[in-house]
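INTERNAL TRANSFER SHEET
From: sequence group
To: structure group
Subject: Vomeronasal type-2 receptor 1-like

Please process the attached sequence and return the structure record in the designated field. Keep the field labels unchanged so the import script can parse them.
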Amino acid sequence: MASRKVWLLCIGLFLFILEHVPTPVTSQAPKKPEEECRLLGKFDLRGYVDAEEAMHVIGGMFPIHFRTILEDDPTSTPPNSPKCEGFNFRGYRWVKAMIHAINDINKRKDILPNITLGYQIYDTCFTMSKTVENSLAFLTGQNETTPVFRCSTGAPLSAIIGAGGSTLSIASSRILGLYYFPQVGYASSSSLLSDKYQFPTYLRTIPSDKVQSRGMADLIHHFGWRWVGTIAADDDYGKYGVKAFKESVENLYTCIAFSETIPKIYNRDKLKAVVDIVKETNATVIVVYSSDIDFHPLVEELMVNNITGITWIASEAWVTSALIARPEYFPLLGGAIGFGIRKGEIPGFKEFLLEVNPNTDSNDMTIEFWQSAFNCTWPGVNISYNTDNRKNVTGHENIVDFSSKKPCTGKEKLADLKNTYLDISELRITYNVYKAVFAVAYGLDQLRMCETDKGPFISGPKCATIDEFEPWQTHQRHYTEWIDARECTACPEDHWSNQQRSKCNHKEVEFLAYGEALGMTLIALSVFGACVILSVTGVYVKFRKTPLVKANDRELSFLIQFSLVATLLTSVLFVGKPEDWSCQSRQVSLALAFSVCLSCVLGKTVMLFLTHLARNSKVAEKARMSVGPIFQKVVVVVSVLAEVGICTTYLYYSPPSMYKNTQFTTLRIIYECNEGSIMYLCIMFGFDVFLAIQCFLTAFVARKLPNNFNEAKFVTFGMLVFFIVWISFVPAYLSTRGKFKVAVEIFAILASSFGLLGCIFVPKCYIILLKPARNTEEIVGGRAMTNDKSAPPTSASCASEINTVSTVLED
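Return from structure group:
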């Protein structure tokens, strides 16, 4: 018993010593936080990196593969970075566009001289998990990430291009935005990304879906479709796109028949449910907001069920996709309408794409591209991606089966490929990638040119050096008077912020000025035309007693010449800075001058018309003789008074005014005239058109009079010139903006005035000045004799002056 107590006492003493006496350990330095805090596993990052000799690096995230490979039992093994499958030739072309843009910038001397850009490009595999991996890798500079710590010692990462679809960009921007890291998207159009509170540093080279949704709504309203269905991908792009579309059509009397979603992970039962709804619905128009990759399984299922008779409204993500635009899908999708992204051209891009070869670039991505393109295996290389008899689904002729054991030689010809990689006929997203890289380069170049003591920062010389710059910038329409301010103040509408965003400067103004070449040329032509008409008037005054001038009704001729001079001189009112008085006078004076001219011409043609009727009717002959010149004066007075009344009403109820157009372009202000009521403007010029039509009809009917009455033919030609000029003017006027719009109208005024001058007065002057032998009483008087042999040879009784011209020309 005593021995047992001693044993228990020894055990207790030993436990006491273990608990209270420190155990000697080897001396170790304290671990750094980044050495203690590590994520489980490493990221498997694949792509292209060229940053060793670069002074600045631009990151990129592109879907070089379509998806990741799902693990059979993710709980039985440690978490690993997922592998990717399905090589995306289109996404690979985007990668090459970024590399090509950086190479072009490095060669140029006007952008970032003496500064070399590098790149660091990773594959997102079109999945959110890989996108998050890439974002963390960009922030920390390593593939074994520790948030908050940056472990890279190379060139600073300036910005990131990416990350493809809207859902991927939203995921990456939520991480990068925490550190105000600049990100430029090239294919993410979700309206959610426009929220600067959630995504403060996200920019993009593609419009927001709000713009596209309004366009879709206007399209549906234009065709009168009242019953529409919607299908969206089960992601942020699809959900917010359809939401914006519904908001746009809610006030256009359009009803939504159904709203369905496409699963992100293939599920045939869910796809069949969507197909059943499409088959049962009465809606024949369906709007689809989805990427081509997500939409493709539904297309296959719709083809199996032989769905036809649907008008598909496509979003920009699949409307130009080669994966969807395949011949076998035409019975289903033929006639689909969508809004494509603006396309562009990239100099030297085709040649750059053809330079790819694993013999010169042993990157895993290059080798996998080569194997996928030519359905072969590169010798001595074991790439685990996409080599397990899976198939690509990237579009026409992109389906490749990797069961082939044919070895690659590197001598295969890329130019013989028929896939989306070499299809540069319509570069849309590829061009957006190219623009995004240049946008970052121009931003860095602006930072490089920052002048000392004029920068936005307090520390140092108030300019951030290009090696240590801040990732945020102020919008060009905003400014701040306080350095390091959190918020900016919007400039007035007619101002623009300076480069330092510290004050507002006046925008450049645009109008057709007197001093510029175009304005001076148009004024010179107007004055020249007026001088020519005054010369014609001088000829008529000098030879006023000759038979031809007497027979030409001098009063009407002088009125026509006066009105043509006034018409030409009204073009002067269109030149110069618009003011309220000039805007109110120019269109009104033009309409009045034309009404005087056309009413005088109408007075001539009406008498010619009556003369034509008098040839076969004694009653018409007596009527013509009874009205005489008085009727011509009545036509002129009534027509001019009617136009004066219309112009007065127009100026009283809806007068034109000067307008500063800041909507057409944000870089300058266009000074132009707001014409007021379009209805009154159309009535005012519509009356002139009415007079011109009457002139043409009466002259056209009388054009076959004998040689004594041939003036109708020349008036007909003059009216045809008048109509051709003004009909051509309308589309040209509506398709131009700014000062060129004014120039188009002045040109129409000049052309129509010179046309009337040439057709009506040039033949008469030709007789008076060059053929005086024909201007005699015997010829003019004899040919102008009336039926009763008593009426004097005036144009009121007969229009004989032009027949003399015809006689001379026939000689």
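Handover comment: Residues 278 and 574 are 58 Å apart (CA to CA). The mean pLDDT is 79.
Transfer complete.
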